Amino acid sequence: MLSKKPRKEFLTFFEKRGHQIVASSSLIPTDTTVLFTTAGMQQFKEYFLGKRSPFSNKVASCQKCFRTSDIGEVGDERHLTFLEMLGNFSFGDYFKEGAVKYALDFLVQELGLEKEKIWITVFKGEGRVPEDKESKRIWQSLGIPKERIFGFDRKDNFWGPTGLEGPCGPSTEIHYDLTSQPCQKGTNCIPNCDCNRFIELWNLVFNEYYQNREGQLTPLKQRGVDTGMGLERLAMVCQNKKSVYETDLFFPIMVEIPGKDERAKRVIADHIKSAVFLASEDILPSNVEQGYILRRILRRAIRYGKILNLPKNFLIPLAQKVIEIYRDIYPEVQFRQADILTVIQNEEEKFSKTLEKGLKQFEKISARGDISGVDAFHLYDTYGFPLELTEELARERGLKTNKKGFQEAFEKHQEISRAGVEKKFGGIGKETSPEAIRLHTATHLLHQALREVLGLHVKQMGSDITSERLRFDFSHPKQMTEEEIKKVENLVNQKIKEDLEIKKEEMPHKEAIKKGALAFFKEKYPEKVTVYSINNFSKEICAGPHVQRTLELGFFNIVKEESSGAGVRRIRATLIPPPKADKL
Length: 584
Fold this sequence. Notes:
The protein has 584 residues and is α+β, with helices and mostly antiparallel strands. It folds into three domains: 4-241, BirA Bifunctional Protein, domain 2 (2-Layer Sandwich); 251-340, no CATH class; 427-576, Threonyl-tRNA Synthetase, Chain A, domain 2. The protein has 18 helices and 16 strands. Strands 1, 2, 3, 4, 5, 6, 7, 8 and 9 form a nine-stranded mixed β-sheet that branches. Strands 10-11-16-15 form a four-stranded antiparallel β-sheet. Helix 4 (133-141) links the parallel strand 4 and strand 5. The radius of gyration is 27 Å and the shape is globular.
């Protein structure tokens, strides 16, 4: 049974039962308290809290997910960073009995899995949250004997919230018995045993509570159902494979990776798949937030490629294989193929240059014993080693890494460069001549014009302004064409001719972000910020100063477009002042 079948049959099953099928949301969530979409329920979070759903009170989806928590586990039979999550959801409609019955019917009646191999876990109660006796009773009424139902605490059978606060509740999980053979624990070999006899297949969450940022629970006015089943694990069971890497979702990638180190091959296969999907979302490798995670998994894959002695640019054909597997399901990976491959190739070339030198330096450092914070930061700052890579290398040698010392060295480095950063992102620094102020306003117009012509992945990466010219760095994976440069230049000049008003407002940082103001390095912003808006065209958090109307700028001229580093382009531009009015 190829993976296309259970994916399609899941959605068809729930559509026939009154669920509206909703497309996968982006891997970048609207919830700013989390880096990625980690579960199907995230795009429906507010509907569990009582907001009316624009879809239906019953929906189902196949959601793209990325989980940073599992990076260290990748390489075993079942853990992944990127996965597809099949889920059905109820916002005040059916609850425990409906969810349990749907799940059992789909697995047994639709997919033909053996009911005798289905084992169940439920919430046994903890603190003020009582035992979930109802779910246990429902499972038994549907033919699952009590001998295959076990209670676990909050760690295993209470899910949520995603982010710092939100809906959550007890869960009941469906585990599948892969071997029917207990390990040395005998009768104590039950679901959640670490012997790999069982695989957790489907998690049914009953959202009954709201958890605030202090961890306090209050009952929800509207109860809901949130379920999640990893397609890769389901495919593994349906295809009778021993690991997710043997299924049709991974095998075409795995056969392209030579070598005998199975774990290394699995890490590469997982990480290149994740990199393709992250890059398809316009994420570029960087040292912050989502970009840092993309850089981390790519550099980890490159390091394992070195272990297997893989050739230069080995990630590119693997990325093409990933696109081939998913192009019919997620057309965006095919549509963005050129950009995706450029991002991966740039990062591979950049890190490959320093990897060998960095590994030699690590050998010298590790010969002295545990890795100090200063040494870990040196590997990061000089050789591009993410802290997690240094930690992994140290663990392989039985050594520890001083994370606290690394953080202290990192913060010291930030303090030294803070003044430069403030000039780079906070305004135009000490250069406050009329010419520099006009050029500063022009950078805001340029930034938005680039986003409209090239795409919303464009983000300011730095700027430098003098009284003669502006220099603007921005994220973009490839050289701009002459046509694109002209479009950007024309759009800026069009907005200048429209004589738009530049409006200055002060407001809380959160409100500014909510209103759509662009911001960079948000951890550096104070609670109250200044927002400059150029009519409905541009809105940015900025320290200023600016002109009052765009017509004051004159004519905008792009002098040069060039590379400023991997995934970063640079524009140099000038302004030709507007003609002065004749004196009477």
